[in-house]
Amino acid sequence: MKSKTAAIPYVIWMLIFIVVPMALVVFFSFTDRSGQFTLENIANVGKYSTVFLRSIWLGALATAICLLLGYPLAYIISRAAGGRQSVMIMLVMLPMWMNFLLRTYAWMTLLENNGLINKALGLIGLGPFELINTQGAVVLGMVYNFLPFMILPIYSVMTKIDTRIIEAAQDLGANGRKVFSKVILPLSVPGIITGITMVFVPAVSTFIISKMLGGGANLLIGDLIDMQFLGNSYNPNLGSAISLVLMVLIMICMGIMNQFDDGENTGGMMI
Predict the structure, then answer these.
(1) Alpha-carbon distance 206 to 268, whole Å?
(2) Three-state secondary structure of 12-37
(3) How many CB atoms neighbour CB 113 within 10 A?
(4) Among 137, 119, 136, 139, which residue's Cα sits nearest to residue 128?
């Protein structure tokens, strides 16, 4: 009885901030401005298939880069001494203590035509290069802002790997490559899945990064939704429909990733 009473605040929180907003999104998606049921909003989402594909591509690319950078860093941090681990984790989290907009503005200063990077290249006779207002700048902004979300869950899982398992594999004759591929990598899959989810979801739906570093030329789903609710073409019904389709796509991607997570304990540790 006490446990049910203690859960009431959390249930109320979920109703107010999750269930009700989701219900409103669904309602606006399937109604017109007069409140009548319609499928026109969902049908119109297909007109923006190019934007969806671009968002998924750039989000997946940023996620892959974060994984390639974050996995080795998480492994190095997890194998460092206790005091050194704390310092390295603090350095990973330090940029997150700054405002998101300030971090993105900093990259605008670095990447613009008269920015620090082009000025540095100019000293050796190179450039100036078109660094800002490109898809590369958008991906760079995603990687910089979301990389900690890849490192931290992988690091958290790796620190829980029992060193006796690694020692047992070495005693059985496994070299460093086999220990990594047969023991460490399979056991770190839950952290990889969590990291991919935590990076891909905000990356595919971001709008600040694409607006500031993409210059509006690289329109993403987040920009499209923002335009429907806050832009001149105010259309909350279409914006809700786009948001609903985006949520469905993200849920499908997460479901696919969870299939890999479900199978991570089935074998994979045979030397």
Answers:
(1) 36
(2) HHHHHHHHHHHHHHHHHHCECCCCCE
(3) 14
(4) 119
Q: Measure Cα distances from 167 to 67, 186, 266 in Å.
A: 26, 16, 21
Any idea what the Cα angle at residue 42 is, between residues 37 and 46, rounded to 5°? 155
pLDDT in tens, 133-153: 999 999 999 999 999 999 999
Q: Which residues pair with 37 in a beta bridge?
A: 31
DSSP codes joined into one string, 222-261: HHHHHHHHHSSS--HHHHHHHHHHHHHHHHHHHHHHHHHH
DSSP 96: G
pLDDT digits (tens, 9 = 90+) for 70-103: 999 999 999 888 789 999 999 999 888 888 888 9
Residue with tokens 């460093």: 176
CA separation (Å) from 175 to 91, 161, 179, 239, 269?
A: 32, 18, 6, 54, 14
